[in-house]
């Protein structure tokens, strides 16, 4: 069993989706990310783990240039998506973010109906030719977000009226509706119950067939369950990046071991 | 207290809860004091409002009615000729019909005739003339018409001229009072609602003066003000808040906009006089220039309100939209503006309400001229509501005292209506999500 998975993983590693080299991030004077280099493989789930405040979200947000929107934030280093520098002048952040979707740490549905929340991305990118197609996209996305059954009777109720966990799944549905090539998920399950968590993990596994998924999580079990590669961050440094199995069974760095076994963080 | 006494036996005393219990009384007292202070403040504010509105109503209500007298007028062909209508002696015809109702009065004596004529408003002859001009076949007929009486008789009828005051100090003499009473006994005197207050423009005669000119002037001025300040204000605010880089320059601009909002309105009037009228050569006294001037003052208010409303939209919504690949412009127009709209509209309407009541800048650009017809467009000379109030407050005739209060009540009515619209719009927009 383990061997089969290993082989599968080796095949996947053949192509790199995102390649980051010597990335540094500053918030004003604060040096939040130090010299991080990482290759994120296509058709793979990569988990970012590490203690709170170590820079997981910050690094994740570099990958779709969300840090551009923060006035004080400065990013240096190279990040390439399919071999193209995402910070190059020729790359439009709008285009990039359509390719690299994101689920944020805090659920942030639009103050619009559930339907409009999900339909918004496909609408602005012109993904549906008519209402029927749009309906189809919305339903599919809500099903993938594991929330269809709960909202199918009130698609036109406001998205902000859902519970916190439902809002988070709505945000996941919204992100997958635009069919991104890479999906960045910042603690998508922190507000979910075990059943919804299992559903989201199933979705992540399914998305892996076509996309690259990067997930930030505080749950070691979750990282072990869903990811093939794991990166451990500590105080802005990328301490260790390796196959998930290896990180959890045989970490090379002392800090990784301490964190996984619950001694720091 | 009960928490402390009912503590389960055997548990160590909880220090925190005892401290809380000890401080509870003090805290409650503080809260009660604050509540009373707040209610007192509201009470005082309401009392002031009540006194203001009460005093306006007590003087102003009289202006909402106007004493009229009903006459049977014989349109005498000797006095009024179909060929020469404009020169017809309509005044004499009216005096004759009035005199016929007062038994002991003859109109041979010029002085008596003039005092009888004084019962009627100066406008009565023109009303009769308009009737006859519209329908010349009335010549030779007897028509019944109801015309306003002149201001002193209106005051007398409303009890504002005391009959007890000595004759020498009274504007209406004893014999004139007797005439009026005779008319009243015959049931010719009535006091209907004063429509002229809304359908007439300004006049030298209080009984004919109305607010139409001022209402129309204010309407055009506000329309121009809105059309200029709303798009410019919102545009400037969106640029400053969503697109402009945050640096020294934008800080400088922000400070100056805030300063602009605090500049006394008379300064804007002087600026408008210098720039719009003297430099650009725009005409004086016209609502268009008034609107431009008011727009200068309203714009900072709208910019500040809009920026506050945009700031209040949580950044997580912008992030969500941007994360989906929405462009900056899409984020602003599809996600930030809609929830900010109630705040923007409230700010705008408050700004416009301020502009509606603004007097000083309009005085400086000459919108306090004496104009007896309503403007037909923004480039016609006109007054505005506040300047009309100013003009009337300055007029010596007694009748203008109550009319000034009435005009203020009308202005307040418009302000209340505008604020009601603001509240309505706010709730309508809020219900959307
Ligand atoms: N907008 C910001 N402005 C200034 N500093 C920031 C900002 N966002 C994050 N930081 C700082 O950058 C560092 C990394 O933050 P980040 O949000 O990436 O942590 P994290 O690993 O995602 O933590 P958590 O697990 O709690 O979400 C922290 O020290 C934080 O204080
Ligand atoms: Mg985080």
Characterization of this structure:
The complex is a heterodimer of chains A (265) and B (433). By secondary structure, chain A is α/β, with parallel strands linked by helices. In chain A, α4 crosses α5. Helices cover 38% and strands 25% of the residues of chain A. Chain A is built from eleven helices and ten strands. Chain A has a six-stranded mixed beta sheet with strand order 6-7-8-3-9-10, sandwiched between helices. In chain A, strands 2-1-4-5 form a four-stranded antiparallel beta sheet, with helices on one face. Chain A is globular. With 433 residues, chain B is mainly α. Chain B is elongated. The model of chain B has no long low-confidence stretch (mean pLDDT 89). The interface between A and B is medium-sized, with 29 and 20 residues. The structure holds adenosine-5'-triphosphate and magnesium ion. Magnesium ion (MG) binds next to α2 of chain A.
């Amino acid at each position: 069993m383990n061997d089969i998975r290993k082989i599968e993983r080796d095949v996947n590693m053949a192509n790199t989706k995102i390649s980051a080299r010597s990335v540094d991030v500053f918030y004003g004077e604060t040096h939040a990310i130090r010299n991080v280099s990482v290759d994120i493989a296509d058709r793979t789930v990569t988990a970012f783990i590490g203690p709170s405040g170590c820079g997981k979200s910050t690094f994740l947000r570099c990958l779709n240039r969300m840090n551009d929107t923060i006035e004080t934030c400065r990013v240096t280093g190279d990040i390439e998506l399919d071999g193209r520098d995402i910070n190059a002048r020729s790359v439009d952040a709008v285009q990039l973010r359509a390719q690299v979707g994101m689920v944020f740490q805090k659920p942030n549905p639009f103050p619009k109906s559930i339907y409009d929340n999900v339909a918004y991305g496909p609408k602005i990118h012109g993904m549906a030719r008519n209402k029927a197609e749009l309906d189809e996209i919305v339903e599919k996305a809500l099903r993938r977000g594991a929330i269809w059954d709960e909202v199918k009777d009130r698609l036109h109720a406001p998205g902000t009226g859902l519970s916190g966990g439902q809002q988070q799944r709505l945000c996941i549905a919204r992100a997958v509706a635009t069919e991104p090539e890479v999906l960045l998920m910042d603690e998508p399950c922190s507000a979910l119950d075990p059943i919804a968590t299992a559903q989201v993990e199933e979705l992540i596994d399914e998305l892996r067939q076509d996309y690259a998924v990067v997930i930030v999580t505080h749950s070691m079990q979750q990282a072990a369950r869903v990811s093939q590669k794991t990166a451990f961050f500590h105080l802005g440094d990328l301490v260790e990046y390796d196959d998930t199995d290896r990180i959890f069974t045989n970490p090379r760095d002392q800090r990784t071991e301490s964190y996984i076994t619950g001694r720091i963080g | 207290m009960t928490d402390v006494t009912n503590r389960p036996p055997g548990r160590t005393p909880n220090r925190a809860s005892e401290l809380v219990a000890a401080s509870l009384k003090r805290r409650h007292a503080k809260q009660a004091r604050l509540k009373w202070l707040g209610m007192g403040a509201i009470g005082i504010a309401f009392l002031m409002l009540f006194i203001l509105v009460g005093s306006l109503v007590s003087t102003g209500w009289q202006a909402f009615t106007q004493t009229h007298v009903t006459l049977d007028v014989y349109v005498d062909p000797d006095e009024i000729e179909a060929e020469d209508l404009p020169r017809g002696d309509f005044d004499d015809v009216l005096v004759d019909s009035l005199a016929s109702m007062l038994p002991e009065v003859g109109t041979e004596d010029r002085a008596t005739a003039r005092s009888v004529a004084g019962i009627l408003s100066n406008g009565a002859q023109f009303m009769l003339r308009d009737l006859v001009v519209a329908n010349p076949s009335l010549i030779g007929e007897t028509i019944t018409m109801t015309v306003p009486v002149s201001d002193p008789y209106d005051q007398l009828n409303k009890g504002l001229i005391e009959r007890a005051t000595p004759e020498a100090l009274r504007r209406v003499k004893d014999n004139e009072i007797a005439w009026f009473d005779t008319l009243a006994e015959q049931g010719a005197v009535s006091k209907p609602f004063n429509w002229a207050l809304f359908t007439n423009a300004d006049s030298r005669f209080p009984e004919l003066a109305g607010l139409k000119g001022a209402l129309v002037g204010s309407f055009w001025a506000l329309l121009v003000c809105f059309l200029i300040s709303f798009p410019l204000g919102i545009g400037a605010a969106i640029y400053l808040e969503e697109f402009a880089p945050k640096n020294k320059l934008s800080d400088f601009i922000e400070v100056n906009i805030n300063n602009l909002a605090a500049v006394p309105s008379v300064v804007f009037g002087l600026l408008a006089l210098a720039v719009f009228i003297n430099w650009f050569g725009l005409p004086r006294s016209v609502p268009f220039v008034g609107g431009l001037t008011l727009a200068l003052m309203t714009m900072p208010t709208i910019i500040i309100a809009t920026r506050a409303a945009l700031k209040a939209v949580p950044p997580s919504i912008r992030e969500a939209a941007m994360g989906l690949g929405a462009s900056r412009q899409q984020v602003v127009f599809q996600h930030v503006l809609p929830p900010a709209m109630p705040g923007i509209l409230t700010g705008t309407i408050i700004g416009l309400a301020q502009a509606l009541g603004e007097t000083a800048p309009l005085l400086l650009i000459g919108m306090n001229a004496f104009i007896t017809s309503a403007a037909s467009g923004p480039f016609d000379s006109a007054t505005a509501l506040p300047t009309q109030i100013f003009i009337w407050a300055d007029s010596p005739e007694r009748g203008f005292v109550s009319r000034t209060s009435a005009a203020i009540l009308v202005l307040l009515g418009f302000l209340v209506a505008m604020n009601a619209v603001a509240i309505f719009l706010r709730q309508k927009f809020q219900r959307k999500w």
